[in-house]
Amino acid sequence: MIKKKKTKILTLRIGKFKKKKKKTLRIGTVFYFNPNPLSLSLPLSLPTEDRTATFAMDNTDFASDSDMVKNQNSDDSEYDFEDADEEEETDVHNAMPYWLQINPDTIRKEILKIHEAQKIKAKKFLKDFQGKLTLSYEWILSGNGSTRDFVCLTAHFIDDNWTVRHWILGFLTGALIPLDDIYVYHFRKAVQDFEIENKVSTILLPNRDGFDEKNVDAIRKCMDSSVNKPVFVVYCCSDLFRLMVNDMYNEFSWHLYEDVRMLVGWGSLSSTNWNVRLYHLQQAVDMQNEDTFSKDEVYDDYDKPSDEEWVKIRTFCKLAGVIYKVAKEIFEGECSTSNVYFHLLAELEVMLKREVDSGGGDYFVGKGEKVLKLFDKYWNDMFLVLAAASVLDPRFKMKYIDFYCSKKVDSDEGSKAEAVLDYLRDVYARYAAKGIYHKPICPVATVDYEEEDDDEDEDYGDEEEKEKPDAYEGFVLFKEYLKFEGGCSREFQESELDSYLKEPVLEWNKDFKALEWWKEESQKYPILSRVARDSLSIPISRATSYDAYVSEIREPPEYVRSMDAKAANAMVCGRSWLSLIPI
Questions:
Q1: What InterPro entries would the database entry show (predicted)?
Q2: Other Cβ atoms closer than 10 A to 531
């Protein structure tokens, strides 16, 4: 257990004072204590003489109360406050102890200093990490009329303790980057800064027009293709859902949305999250089904949607409701690994097709077919990566893929099942070719200890062999047998992948944790467990939880909006590294 230092957090208002007849020291007062030493409150818009700074120091840096009193008494000779002749203003820094001489510039320098020290540690960690990374790209735009934007580049991986990690490698602006390099620059900078050219196996991109084939190829070239062949591209699922929902929602006029808002009464400010909009519109549909707006006289003076507009609202609620049912499992469920994505998206495909096949009018069918077209393009692009992750779920293995493909009688889905298995065999062979991957993954806390024990055992075994001669040394026929037996065993020996697939699937359990299972089985499948770890770490969305439902581009955290770009990058990146690299 790590013993934490007690830390005092102090907010000081720095002002000025004058030497007057009476002792009056107009230095501000402590306003509040803040338990988070990284939360730095710096209202930089205030004048220099009236800024507020929040800072943290160890107890060893603080003088005791009695010491402070002694220091102040000893300083009275230097600052004679009762001298009536002097009215000269004196800067507060001349009267304060050194540790109180805090201003936004010193705090910014300290933030950057800590970030540089942490970056060296993060770089070493990633260099020594014996696994693969997924790099994700997200464009974040400040609201409130500001045109300031950031690009957030994040590394996703599962560490040696089988914990999912999301490390932000860059939180940078694109103000000075040429437009023709705006999409590639951030990948190239992160890969070069952290020296992870041979670590990246997958890139997660937004569903936006800017990431065309030319830019995607340029991003792939930033990686070491000889080691990472191929670097897969995964597109953001939350973006897909946003595009599908917005295609229907854009049919609503502003007046229609306001009329429904007044009828249902959900408040003056509407949410930009599409799941909240769905909830409110579904309320209106339920009330209309119950004929509430005709029965109750209170609604007589309200404007109501026309029959054509009610069709649009019902279409939105029906199709968006199907999408939300699956999105809730993906974004709000407890499973954060990629083994669950395939069967959930396959379910969405089936539900959407059933809704379209059930009819419901030309408008409904037209919208349903357009939503399905968007989904089918995404599904075809993502099929191989998501299906491979599903196979590495011991509840499914190849059985779910075979079942899914068997339902597609009139298509080439059967050949896709073979392609998934071939892909996994190829990945497994590349891992098996590296000797280091033949060892089980060891938790970080026990690596050194176990290595030392292994070395001691090996040394002891060598001594035993030297002391005891081999009695079979001259047995020629037996040696020929050993060569014969060894050749046969290597020729017909099953790989870990084949052995894994031959074993029965586990009984279905919705709360099953794939990472916990692979952690327990890593001794049995040392190579395949590493394949599983890297495959299951691939995210399907840049945003999770309720951020995944944002209808537009996400905004940056509140605490970085007043910072300059360099300090914002240091704060955002440093916070994401704290779990593995404490200060």
A1: hAT-like_transposase_RNase-H (IPR025525), HATC_C_dom (IPR008906), RNaseH-like_sf (IPR012337)
A2: 23
